Amino acid sequence: MGESRDAGPFVPENADLPELRRASAGCRGCPLYERATQTVFGEGPVGARLLLVGEQPGDQEDRQGRPFVGPAGKLLGRALEEAEIERDAVYVTNAVKHFKFTLKEWSKRRFHQSPGTIEINACRPWLVAELEAVSPEVVVALGAVAGRALLGPSFRVTKQRGVPLDCPPFDAIGAPAPAQGPPAGRIVATIHPSAVLRAPDRDAVYAGLVGDLRVAARLLD
């Protein structure tokens, strides 16, 4: 299929989640596929009312081919339970589907690198396709990368977290002009679970994550 600037040519039209997952394995929409072990597509039930978007796969996710199975994923599972959200009823995915990392001469470990605008934009067709296939009522953006993927480059998680925001129509996400028509649902932004693991005041930061998830849960009542 040749080189592509984004994942668009690899995303089948009007596909269901199993078809999208199979197609995503062959995505060559950006250079990240060259070093990653595999594509890590989203998981969860069709028709999930709540959809969570993270940043990108981590080391364990890249190895296992599943989202949120590493330390941050385990913490997220605990936070969802405390927010009274059933984990198996939620669809979870990432804004970027391949692991971006760097290697150090003094270590065999693969060090996480945050995706940039190029990777976010390149992978957005997959995220839009997932949103359209699942059609959730509420989307939770976990961290700045997810927020920018959904709401554009002006998004700031520190200023907009925990507040229900209108979600643009899914097929207009990432469009250069403001979307026309009714919103597709609501978005609640919060920090990424990995931020809790890095925080010196972990208990307080974790409580904030749970509080933001509770805001999303109340929107479903």
From TrEMBL:
Keyword line: 4Fe-4S, DNA damage, DNA repair, Hydrolase, Iron, Iron-sulfur, Metal-binding
Uracil-DNA glycosylase-like domain mapped to chain residues: 41-214
Similarity comment text for this entry: Belongs to the uracil-DNA glycosylase (UDG) superfamily. Type 4 (UDGa) family.
Matching Pfam families: UDG
Organism field: Actinocorallia aurantiaca
Protein name: Type-4 uracil-DNA glycosylase
Any coiled-coil regions, as ranges: none
